[in-house]
């Protein structure tokens, strides 16, 4: 009896490293993409605690893994372990995509590309505008970099539970990108109504509202939002978070995290394979999965 298997001796392995890793939808997205494109690749999740990060990179090279994504909490930790890092990853201080080029691991940050492609339809509106960013982690860094480099914003407010972290991020980008129009605020929603209402764009870069904590939100004060605003949440599960529902009810234009997720994934896909991801088909497949 002949057994048919789509994987064989020529199958190239791609993966994602993080800790924990079960929450990641990257394996689903990329394996759908490889299937649709007919590419002989397989994408696997690898749970790598921070203490084993250095060894895992050696293992990736030794096993000939073609490339991999990096997720929480390893995005910042992996940077000093790489000899070759792209400009945006170096400035942001975080890597989310690594390509194995004949034993040399090169780091990129495709989250920036995801942010840029997602906000591109609003480029003219965002020029010389004020922006509020909720959170001060790796995703916030990517958003700040993208806004300064690509959207000519006038001012950025960084809002975080721990204001000192927001303040240090403000100082970081002032030094790294010579952008001095940044303010920092503690996440105290009643005190932020005017800051939010003064913002053309509000971006949530935190995990507040992510499945299974779907009733969580950075603010539940409806007066924070109004018509004419753009509210973008980087969370993609659920597709429409509590924050986005609230903003939408006040007439704001909402942008879900699914577009960013697929766009950053498409850039990683291109770096690994040299091919274009079938983005529209992948988006529809993920939408169907996440809403079923």
From TrEMBL:
Pfam families, A to Z: SDH_C, Shikimate_DH, Shikimate_dh_N
Protein name according to UniProt: Shikimate dehydrogenase (NADP(+))
Functional note: Involved in the biosynthesis of the chorismate, which leads to the biosynthesis of aromatic amino acids. Catalyzes the reversible NADPH linked reduction of 3-dehydroshikimate (DHSA) to yield shikimate (SA).
Gene behind the chain: aroE
UniProt keyword NADP present: yes
Superkingdom, natural source: Bacteria
EC number(s) stated in the UniProt entry for this protein: 1.1.1.25
Xref: NCBIfam families: aroE (TIGR00507), PRK00258.2-2 (NF001314), PRK00258.3-3 (NF001319)
Protein family (similarity comment): Belongs to the shikimate dehydrogenase family.
Entry keyword annotation includes Glycoprotein: no
Quaternary structure note: Homodimer.
């Amino acid at each position: 009896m002949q057994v048919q298997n789509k994987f064989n001796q020529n199958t190239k392995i791609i993966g994602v490293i993080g800790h924990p890793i079960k929450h990641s939808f990257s394996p689903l997205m990329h394996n759908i993409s490889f299937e649709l494109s007919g590419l002989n690749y397989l994408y696997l999740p690898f749970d790598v605690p921070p203490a084993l990060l250095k060894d895992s990179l050696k293992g990736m090279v030794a096993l000939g893994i073609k490339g991999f994504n990096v997720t929480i909490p390893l995005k910042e930790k992996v940077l000093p372990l790489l000899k070759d890092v792209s400009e945006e990853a170096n400035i942001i201080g975080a890597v989310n995509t690594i390509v194995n080029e004949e034993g040399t691991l090169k780091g990129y940050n495709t989250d920036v590309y995801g942010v840029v492609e997602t906000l591109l339809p609003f480029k003219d509106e965002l020029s010389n505008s004020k922006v509020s960013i909720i959170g001060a982690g790796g995703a916030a860094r990517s958003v700040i970099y993208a806004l300064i480099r690509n959207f000519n914003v006038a001012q950025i407010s960084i809002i975080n539970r721990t204001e000192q972290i927001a303040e240090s991020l403000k100082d970081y980008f002032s030094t790294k990108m010579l952008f001095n129009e940044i303010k920092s605020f503690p996440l105290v929603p009643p005190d932020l109504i005017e800051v939010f209402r003064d913002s053309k764009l509000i971006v949530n870069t935190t995990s507040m509202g992510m499945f299974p904590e779907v009733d969580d939100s950075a603010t539940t004060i409806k007066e924070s939002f109004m018509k004419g605003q753009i509210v973008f949440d980087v969370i993609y599960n659920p597709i429409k978070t509590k924050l986005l529902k609230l903003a939408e009810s006040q007439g704001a234009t909402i942008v879900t995290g699914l577009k960013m997720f697929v766009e950053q994934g498409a850039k990683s896909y291109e770096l690994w394979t040299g091919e274009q991801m079938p983005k529209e088909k992948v988006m529809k497949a993920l939408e169907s999965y996440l809403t079923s």
